[in-house]
Amino acid sequence: MSNDDYEIRYPINAVNIKKFAELLGKTPSAVNDMVENQKLPVINLRDPNKPNARVGERWIYLPEFNRMVREAYFNRPAEERDAWLKWIGL
C-alpha cells in the first residue's frame, strides 16, 4: 500500500503540494508555481540535522489558506457574494 492509498479522515493543518493540488483540482505544477510566486502559505520542511540544507518539502498551511479564502469571499460586494442565493431562489 502506498501513501496515496490512505484516505485522510481526521482534521489536518497542512498538506504537501501534490495533495493540495488534488484538493483544488489543479496540477501539482500549477500549485508549485503558486508556491514559487508566494501565493500560498507555505511551511518549508528541512532535515533538522542539516540546518544549511535546501528545503526538503513544502507543505501548504490549510488554516491560513482557508482564512485567506474567507476574507476574499467576505470582501466581495454583497450583491456578488450572495448572487448564488438569489439564483436558487433564497
TrEMBL record:
Superkingdom assignment: Bacteria
Q: Name one Pfam family in it.
A: Phage_Cox
Question: What name appears for this protein in its UniProt entry?
Answer: Cox protein
Biological classification of the source: Bacteria, Pseudomonadati, Pseudomonadota, Gammaproteobacteria, Enterobacterales
